[in-house]
């Protein structure tokens, strides 16, 4: 974990990514920081040990490697402090545990990541927290859902799998009138395309597994808080003893350096594929905020600086009983797209979306929903592979 040291942020985004979080001359000019493997930290004398009067005291509280990544994320997020945890899910759940108590009421967007919903419906309710889900399109009308014990509002924008855009400023304004904390999962956009704290969100969460790491081989999450809520987050993390490993922090910091150029390619590829799919008769809808046809596109364009490489589309299928057969035929017809969970790495991936856990939002009726992670391959090759999948679906 690391507090913000007020590093200047006058550079452009890619320059900032190259320089953020670490000065090579702190370590003899080596461009990347060393991966410090540690648990125990020695003190020079008993007085220093008693008063903790040195920067590092025990590795769960930070090392030079984890601090380098935290400092970089602080700069990108504009945060007072950041902590590292072993996964994106852990980042969300730790934030909830830091700010919620028995008897509290939490408002959670209905398009939330499915594993977060599972945590809310099991662990949070078991701890005596009342959980209520709300429509992501609710905007300022969310105020009607507040009660005297509403303490937290959790946003995810765009929403998981169906990519609904939320009116973040309107929701933040309503929440703060009731003195509720606002947390947001910003994994899709990253701080390059949206900075939650600039819009009044109190705690910004990323699954660094995705675009910051960028190579489909690391699990990590970050939780970044504003000045008002940083100390409470820091104390909760210390009490729970959850921390990121030095090797993973090193790899995420290494991936961060190229995240800007990778995101540009992900966005360009995804937009080209989304437009191509939207023009096809065998595709009912494409769920991608960057498309003018997408509901909420105007809000996305107002608030976001770009779009990442993940979206879904609805396959056009005449009979509901054929949804599963057609979806599986499409997936099995692919060869370049891998069938796998997660996203944010360099390869393209595909899966069928399960929306059965939604409480408010309804699944599209035109056909099954298929999510694509558009990777860094050539667009022509991606189109050819999707064509094979669509042909297999038609033949099924």
TrEMBL record:
It catalyses: L,L-cystathionine + H2O = L-homocysteine + pyruvate + NH4(+). GO terms for biological process: L-cysteine catabolic process to pyruvate; transsulfuration. Keywords: Lyase, Plasmid, Pyridoxal phosphate. GO terms for molecular function: cysteine-S-conjugate beta-lyase activity; pyridoxal phosphate binding. The keyword Chloroplast does not apply. The keyword Lyase applies. The modification N6-(pyridoxal phosphate)lysine is found at residue 210. Transmembrane segments: none annotated. Its cofactor is pyridoxal 5'-phosphate. It is an enzyme of class 4 (lyase). Its EC number is 4.4.1.8. NCBIfam families: cysta_beta_ly_B (TIGR01324), PRK05967.1 (NF004626). This is Cystathionine beta-lyase.
């Amino acid at each position: 974990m690391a507090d913000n040291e007020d590093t200047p942020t006058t550079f452009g985004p890619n320059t900032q990514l190259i320089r953020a979080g670490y000065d090579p001359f702190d370590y003899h000019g080596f461009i990347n920081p060393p991966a410090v493997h540690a648990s125990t930290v020695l003190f020079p004398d008993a007085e220093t040990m008693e008063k903790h009067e040195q920067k590092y005291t025990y590795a769960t509280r930070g090392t030079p490697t984890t601090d380098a990544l935290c400092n970089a994320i602080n700069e990108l997020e504009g945060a007072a402090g950041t902590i590292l945890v072993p996964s994106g899910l852990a980042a969300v759940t730790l934030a909830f545990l830091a700010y919620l108590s028995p008897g509290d009421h939490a408002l959670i967007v209905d398009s939330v990541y499915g594993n977060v919903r599972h945590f809310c419906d099991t662990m949070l309710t078991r701890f005596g927290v009342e959980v209520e889900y709300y429509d992501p399109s609710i905007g300022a009308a969310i105020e009607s859902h507040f009660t005297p014990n509403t303490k937290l509002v959790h946003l995810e924008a765009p929403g998981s799998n169906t990519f609904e855009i939320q009116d973040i400023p309107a929701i933040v304004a309503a929440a703060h009138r009731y003195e509720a904390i606002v947390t947001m999962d910003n994994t899709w956009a990253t701080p390059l395309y949206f900075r939650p704290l600039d819009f009044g969100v109190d705690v910004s969460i990323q699954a660094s597994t995705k675009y910051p790491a960028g190579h489909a081989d690391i699990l990590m999450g970050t939780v970044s808080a504003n000045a008002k809520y940083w100390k409470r987050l820091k104390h909760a993390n210390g009490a729970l003893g959850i921390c990121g490993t030095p090797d993973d922090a090193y790899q995420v910091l290494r991936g961060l350096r190229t995240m800007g150029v990778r995101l540009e390619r992900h966005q360009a590829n995804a937009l080209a594929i989304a437009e191509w799919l939207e023009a096809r008769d065998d595709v009912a809808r494409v769920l991608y905020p960057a498309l003018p046809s997408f509901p909420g596109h105007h809000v996305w364009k107002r608030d976001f600086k770009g779009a990442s490489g993940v979206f879904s589309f609805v396959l056009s299928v005449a009979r509901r009983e054929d949804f599963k057969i057609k979806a599986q035929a499409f997936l099995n017809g692919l060869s370049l797209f891998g069938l796998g969970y997660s996203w944010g790495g360099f390869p393209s991936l595909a899966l069928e979306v399960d929306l059965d856990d939604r409480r408010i939002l309804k699944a599209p009726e035109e056909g099954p929903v298929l999510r694509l992670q558009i990777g860094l391959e050539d667009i022509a090759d991606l189109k050819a592979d999707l064509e094979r999948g669509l042909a297999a679906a038609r033949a099924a």
